[in-house]
Amino acid sequence: MMKFLAAALLAGGLLSVAGTAGAAECGDVSIAEMNWASAGVAAHVDGIILEKGYGCNVTLVTGDTVPTFASMNEKGEPDMAPELWVNSVRAALDTAVKEGRLIQAAPILSDGGVEGWWIPKFLADANPDIKTVDQALARPDLFPAPEDPSKGAVYNCPSGWSCQISTANLFKAVGAKDKGFELIDTGSAAGLDGSIANAFEKKIGWLGYYWAPTAILGKYEMVKLSFGVEHDKAEWDRCTGVADCPDPKVNSYPVAGVFTVVTKAFAEKAGVAMDYVKARKWDNQTVGAVLAWMDENQADNEEAAEHFLKEYPDLWTTWVPADVAAKVEEAL
Length: 332
Fold this sequence. Notes:
Mean pLDDT: 90
Distance between the termini: 4 Å
Order of helices and strands: EEEHEHEHEEHHEHEHEHEHEHHHHHH
Number of strands: 12
Helix content: 40-55%
Strand order of the largest sheet: 1-2-4-3
Number of helices: 15
């Protein structure tokens, strides 16, 4: 079993990783290990497959979206960002791709990053007529507020998060207050997660903001409701995402593009390993299940990556040739 053991902390947050005898086949490869769970696990999945399957000499680099992208664009390092949420760097990335510095490879999250208002699947199954936000708001009795069950509740994003602003604006836009609902301040990510866990434990209705892929949606089956309109970016920029906007209109959350991005130098030196980078993608349900296992077992990114490779061979072996898959499986 391969272990990502830190030999030393190098400048820029690099973690040295033991290479393989066949490293010359692929060369040295640095991979950004972003500071959120799905991206961290993806970095280790890539590290194991590239090292054990393709003979690369892999180094993990601590990362975050904007600084990692800037470093790749300006310095050509790290070689690879497995999970880059590109909306925040879209214009600069398009320029870098056009000018040949970076390559946008597979959409690692095949569903994209998803935000919205959700209800528990058990409640959706019991009320098949509820498929939209408006239909849910017609039934405040199904979503009792914690302090006043005579009213319905819409659970908001944690304080300080941008989704707190958009959820409050959408709450106003859909007229939820006039329909008997309160907007519940959850205070923190733990508070939001706890409200969902409590709803499932007590089998009571829950309506509010969440996003995928996440451990919570891997553990608890939820159904995303439609706002009944397409995402309007201009309106989002004008009002939906703006604090204290006086006249919000009904809008939908954008689906975030989430791609693997590599440097041109990596694409040129990696050879057939680049075929893997172009093929590798997973859906939010799979990611959510892996993150739920990770949370329940208090596992780290590396352990979750190994769990994924052991438990989901039917998926990941489609990303690589049979001989590469055999090498990886032998190393686990």
